[in-house]
Amino acid sequence: MRIANPMMSVPGAMKAMLDLSAAAAATGLDADFVELICLRVSIMNGCGACIDYHTKLLRKADVADERVYAVAGWRDVPYYTDAEKAAFALAEEMTHVQVSDAVWAEVARHWTEQQLAGLMLAICAINTWNRLNIASQQKVSA
């Protein structure tokens, strides 16, 4: 670890991130699915601390093993709905900071504008967590 977690070190930072996540949740998104999105993005970014954290949350919530373990291969498995697959595509493209018109059109077919906004906020939040944890070399606690 290079420094203590910035979210814990800067007054108000943790509250701001928790408030952002609460705002995303208030859009009516399924909490377990948002955790799957967080897991997928964390895998993409290689954030071990977040992969560990979100996997444990999903297991605690009794999300089906198939949905947890197959999240990296979501395109090729039958465990997710078309709406969920569209949201995974949005998460991946937002993580790469380029959302194509095709992905946007597909995700907009399945989610309301408010839900889309919530998804976008949740995706931004997990990317922020990932970047801070990776840059400061946060480690998984045993």
Automatic annotation (TrEMBL):
Protein name per Swiss-Prot or TrEMBL: Alkyl hydroperoxide reductase AhpD
Annotated Carboxymuconolactone decarboxylase-like domain ranges read 11-93
Signal sequence range: none
Superkingdom as given in the UniProt entry: Bacteria
